[in-house]
């Protein structure tokens, strides 16, 4: 067995009862410095990281004398002492014993192991965790993501998706694997530090991958993967993040806090013992709340960006209205079908529908005003009636008397308003994840929208004016009553996902209150049906419109 090492903390006080303490962390057995040790006050946002030579200096001014100072490094027992007693030390040896490593060999034959990838895989550059030491006093904080392993699993690789990085030197990071305690990160399960230097050349396809296979990290149940940045640098680093997934943050030794608006793009490769004993029900590392409603769809966005749709010069045109320029594209021949995308979306969101539907219909796809390539020239608040009027103007310009409409999310809401205002111009309507009122949307999502709106209003950035109006739209509109729904005469197919952000009972109300409506709920589907269930959706649209 490896000998137990002892750390000697050599403290040098500036003067008796000084408020600033400097020192060096050393290994007694090896007499070498220990780099990047955490020194801070428990339950407070006060702390520092020692440098690569183990040296540190911490200011304890204005700290409650009864508070506990904590010195922590993976593989060793934590040292705690009251600030009052700590300040009295001048040249005191503090012994930190190395934790006893009770390593049990895990014997699993290769045929029983299954490769899995868990976590957040998005590589978006529009939603990010930003690390900027020059402007953030919380630079030494930590972020984490929760995972769930129902069976014993070995972590092979940890991936961190980097949106962009500008740094004048390698970025020093520490990875920690935590047990779960009361729904939050608890104690570290690591026997040694996992500290790495991140540089641009180590980022491949927007991902920094750390091989930890030789660390022999086995997990089961709920656990967390945490990341902390240890050393200042000039520049900034942005980590991709997934909206409506839960991340966890803390400021040094402060309490961990849930951040339900977004989670960092951390994902892990694991080997799962498929014949092992189940400890929990889930094995996917996802949240049970809002994250179940929005799975990572970054791969669909990337595929959509690579398609020709939304930027096809041969089929694209612009309709110039008095207060807007509407960009649209037309594909195929036959009965006209108008496709309307969701909030902040664009034509390319239908990249999986256009090729198939254009075999049977004259498909007209539009960027709604202020979205995609379309321009809004007003300062007014948006509403779905305005969008419906835009669609009527487009149809008039194309000389079309009657059309079918398929609208996704906000596009479905516009379709409902069109059905009420221009019934003589509508043949059939398909709504996908649409709502007639705000109370039909998941309550937690609405709360997140409200928080986002407050943040945008506080920032007051002119370049985000359209984004702000589109967010306000979802919080105020639509306002279609049951009495209004009773007036819709067209045949309507109401589609929603079993795990949609639109409440299941609300989709049922739409189908019940519209006289000629049918309801179809896609099993295990989210709000992202045109992305995730494209084949089934295309088939249903064609059958409904052709009958």
Characterization of this structure:
With 547 residues, the chain is of the alpha+beta class. Strand 1 and strand 2 form a beta hairpin. Helix 4 crosses helix 5 (410-421) and helix 6 (443-459) packs antiparallel against helix 7. It is elongated and about 90 Å long. The chain starts with 5 loop residues before the first strand and ends with a helix. InterPro entries: AB_hydrolase_1, AB_hydrolase_fold, CarboxyPept-like_regulatory. One of its GO terms (molecular function) is hydrolase activity.
Largest sheet: 14 strands, antiparallel
Residue share in helix: 10-25%
SS elements, strand count: 31
Outline: elongated
Q: Specify the number of helices.
A: 11
Mean of pLDDT: 85
| Termini Cα gap | 77 Å
| Class inferred from helices and paired strands | alpha+beta
GO molecular function: hydrolase activity
Pfam families: Abhydrolase_1, CarbopepD_reg_2
Signal peptide: 1-18
Domain AB hydrolase-1: 336-439
């Amino acid at each position: 067995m490896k000998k137990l090492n002892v750390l000697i903390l050599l403290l040098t006080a500036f003067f008796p009862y000084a408020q600033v303490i400097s020192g060096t962390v050393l290994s007694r057995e090896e007499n070498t410095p220990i780099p990047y040790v955490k020194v801070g006050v428990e339950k407070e946002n006060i702390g520092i990281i020692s440098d690569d030579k183990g040296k540190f200096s911490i200011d304890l001014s204005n700290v409650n004398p009864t508070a506990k100072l904590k010195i922590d490094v993976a593989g060793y027992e934590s040292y705690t002492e009251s600030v009052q007693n700590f300040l009295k030390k001048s040249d005191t040896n503090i012994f930190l014993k190395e934790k006893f490593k009770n390593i049990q060999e895990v014997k699993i034959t290769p045929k029983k192991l299954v490769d899995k990838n868990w976590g957040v895989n998005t590589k978006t550059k529009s939603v990010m965790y930003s690390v900027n030491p020059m402007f953030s006093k919380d630079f030494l904080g930590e972020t984490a993501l929760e995972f769930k392993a129902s069976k014993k699993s070995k972590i092979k690789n940890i991936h961190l998706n980097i949106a962009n990085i500008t740094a004048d030197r390698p970025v020093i990071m520490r990875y920690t694997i935590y047990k779960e305690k009361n729904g939050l990160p608890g104690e570290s399960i690591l026997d040694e530090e996992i500290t790495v230097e991140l540089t641009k050349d180590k980022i491949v396809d927007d991902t920094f991958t750390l091989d930890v296979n030789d660390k022999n990290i086995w997990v089961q149940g709920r656990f967390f993967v945490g990341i902390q940045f240890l050393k200042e640098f000039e520049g900034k680093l942005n980590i991709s993040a997934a909206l409506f997934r839960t991340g966890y943050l803390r400021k040094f030794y402060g309490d961990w806090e849930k951040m339900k608006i977004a989670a960092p793009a951390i994902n892990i490769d694991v080997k799962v013992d498929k014949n092992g004993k189940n400890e929990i029900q889930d094995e996917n590392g996802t949240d049970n709340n809002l994250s179940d409603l929005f799975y990572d769809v970054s791969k669909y966005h990337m595929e959509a960006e690579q398609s020709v749709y939304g930027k096809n010069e041969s089929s694209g045109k612009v309709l110039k209205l008095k207060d807007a320029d509407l960009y649209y594209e037309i594909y195929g021949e036959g009965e006209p079908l108008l496709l309307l995308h969701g909030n902040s979306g664009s034509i390319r969101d239908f990249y999986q529908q256009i090729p198939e539907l254009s075999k049977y219909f004259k498909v007209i796809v539009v960027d709604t005003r202020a979205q995609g390539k379309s321009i809004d020239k007003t300062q007014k608040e948006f509403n779905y009636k305005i969008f419906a009027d835009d669609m009527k103007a487009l149809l008039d310009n194309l000389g079309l008397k009657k059309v079918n409409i398929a609208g996704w999310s906000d596009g479905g809401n516009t379709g409902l308003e069109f059905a009420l205002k221009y019934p003589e111009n509508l043949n059939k309507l398909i709504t996908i994840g649409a709502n007639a009122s705000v109370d039909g949307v998941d309550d937690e999502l609405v709360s997140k929208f409200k928080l986002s709106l407050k943040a945008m209003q506080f920032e007051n950035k002119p370049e985000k004016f359209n984004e702000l109006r589109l967010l306000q739209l979802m919080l105020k509109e639509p306002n279609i009553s049951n009495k209004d729904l009773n007036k819709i005469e067209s045949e309507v197919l109401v589609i929603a996902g079993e795990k949609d952000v639109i409440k299941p009972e609300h989709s049922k109300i739409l189908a019940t209150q519209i006289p000629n409506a049918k309801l179809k709920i896609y099993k295990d589907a989210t709000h992202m049906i045109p992305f995730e269930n494209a084949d089934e959706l295309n088939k249903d649209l064609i059958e409904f419109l052709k009958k």
